[in-house]
Amino acid sequence: MVGRDILVAEDEVKIAEILQDYLKKAGYRVACLDRGDLVVPYVRQKQPTLILLDLMLPGMDGMEVCREVRKFSEVPIIMITARVEEIDRLLGLELGADDYICKPFSPREVVARVKAVLRRIQAEPAGKKLVVGELNLIPEAHQVLIGGQELKLTPCEYNLLKTLLSQPNRIFSRNELINVTQGYDFEGYERTIDSHIKNLRKKIAGYLPGQEVISTIYGVGYKLNASPSK
């Protein structure tokens, strides 16, 4: 059973209070912090189930917080940003955020996004392992191994790799992969998948250097190679 402890890192008091109220009504336990430099020690000590992380925080901005948290935790992170520039959103994703929400937003939308992310990390029923080359995905453990070593992945990265592993050499469009990782109601854009693929490739390359495990099919999407090329 996935926990229900949400950390809201937001320095605008009214926004933090509204998010807290709506999340509590949805059955979550909520803690709020108004400074970025308080988030990392809190996550280390309390290990929340999910973080709603504002981009513009005093003490340490959301980008830096995300970067530091990802050094030791794969806790789901949803970025909250008032910036509309695409580069800001993509940078957050490349640092390891699972999703983002732009201000102004509906509190109900935030709760829906939280529920969607947590549904994706629910314990999976026992099922067959997916093995391609040195990649070994174990559904019941929500775990991926490479040569016996665990590959640390965010929920989005895990679901993305699971989809690619399920049908090696099949080309998946970006829209198909968005549906898998973000849900059918996600109003994002295709570049989000590029960011997650970039992160996934980087992590896999740490164990399988020089191998092209995931190929880009330009203008179409991505595929996992049954026999990675070097």
CATH superfamily of the largest domain: Response regulator
Global geometry? globular
Instruction: Let me know the largest β-sheet.
Output: 5 strands, parallel
How helix-rich are the residues, as a percent range?
25-40%
Unreliable stretches, pLDDT < 50, 5 or more residues? none
Global structural class:
alpha/beta
The overall strand count is 12
Count the domains.
Answer: 2
Provide the spatial order of strands within the biggest beta sheet: 2-1-3-4-5
The CATH topology of the largest domain corresponds to Rossmann fold
% residues in beta strands: 15-25%
How many helices? The count is 8
Return the string of H and E elements. Answer: EHEHEHEHEHEEEEHEHHEE
Q: What is the typical, i.e. mean, pLDDT? A: 85
Intertermini distance: 41 Å
CATH architecture of the largest domain: 3-Layer(aba) Sandwich
In CATH, what is the class of the largest domain?
Alpha Beta
Q: Indicate the radius of gyration in whole angstroms.
A: 18 Å
